[in-house]
Specification:
The chain is mainly α and about 270 residues long. It has a single domain, classed as MetI-like fold, CATH 1.10.3720. Helix content is about 70%, strand content about 0%. It contains ten helices and two strands. The protein has a two-stranded antiparallel sheet. A hairpin with a 2-residue loop joins strand 1 and strand 2. Helix 3 runs parallel beside helix 6 and helix 9 runs antiparallel to helix 10.
Length: about 270
């Protein structure tokens, strides 16, 4: 099986779990039963079978894992779209106009790249407060410079090509030139970056939730499940193991898909 197909199958499974969580989860991810707390995997009970065990509040780990896919994929998807749109726009403007405008914009990109991710995340969360939307903003505001650099270089190479010069000679304005002639050349490179960024966004979302800066309880999140499980590593190994495996497999699938898309769209790899 090609690696890209395997990655797509893994991502599709995670997406199906996220979209069909209310139907696939055997129990409510919020239902607590202190009598059933910290039960190992495959525990049978009158209310059903806990295939992946229960956590410290007696909640079904499998149900929370399935619902946790929603938070990870929603945050990763929205953050990639936000950062990709912002970074591509900034890079295209800087590359098209060059000169003082391009220099100022690209120095700003370098400044953002110099700020540590966690420092910026803590600053934004301290101002806006932790939530799913603010997690998307944090990730988008920290990852857009990568798209800007790619778009900047591609725009510099495209703006002097013959078909762009011909359109300019025919009276096309700058906005139309960038939208109709430059953007189609920049978009494939931006898509390659986006596919490779999805895995990083999932890891970053889990890291923020692990630190308490991302999706807030009681909403299930793989990162917060890891944070809860670290206190029971010696007595309840399943609490941290299964969320960790979910993150690992989903990121692996995203990276395999990203490599396949890069091989298909990036001419430098051919």
């Amino acid at each position: 099986m090609p690696s890209g197909t395997l990655g797509a199958a893994i991502l599709a499974s995670a997406l199906i779990a996220a979209l069909g969580a209310p139907y696939l989860a055997p129990q409510s991810p919020f239902a607590q039963d202190l009598i059933m707390r910290l039960r190992p995997p495959a525990t049978h009970a009158p209310g059903g079978t806990y295939w992946l065990g229960t956590d410290g509040l007696g909640r079904d780990v499998l149900s929370r894992l399935v619902f946790g896919a929603r938070a990870s994929l929603i945050v990763a998807g929205l953050a990639v779209v936000f950062s990709g749109a912002l970074g591509t726009a900034v890079g295209m403007v800087a590359g098209y106009y060059r000169g003082r405008i391009g220099a100022v914009l690209m120095r700003f990109v370098d400044t953002v790249l110099s700020i540590p991710f966690l420092l910026l995340a803590i600053a934004v969360v301290a101002v806006l407060g932790p939530s799913l939307l603010n997690t998307v903003l944090v990730l988008g505001l920290t990852r857009w410079p990568r798209y800007a650099r790619v778009a900047f270089g591609q725009t510099l190479a495209t703006r002097t090509r013959e078909f762009v010069e011909a359109a300019r000679a025919l009276g096309s304005r700058d906005g139309r030139l960038m939208r109709r002639h430059v953007l189609p050349d920049v978009l494939p490179s931006a898509v390659v970056v986006a596919t490779l960024e999805i895995g990083l966004m999932i890891v970053f979302e889990a890291a923020l939730s692990f630190l308490g800066l991302g999706v807030q309880p009681p909403v299930p999140s793989w990162g917060s499940m890891l944070a809860d499980g670290r206190n029971y590593l010696a007595t309840a190994w399943w609490l941290a193991t299964f969320p960790g495996l979910a993150i690992m497999l989903t990121v692996l699938g995203a990276n395999l898909v990203g490599d396949a898309v890069r091989d298909r769209l990036d001419p430098r790899v051919r």
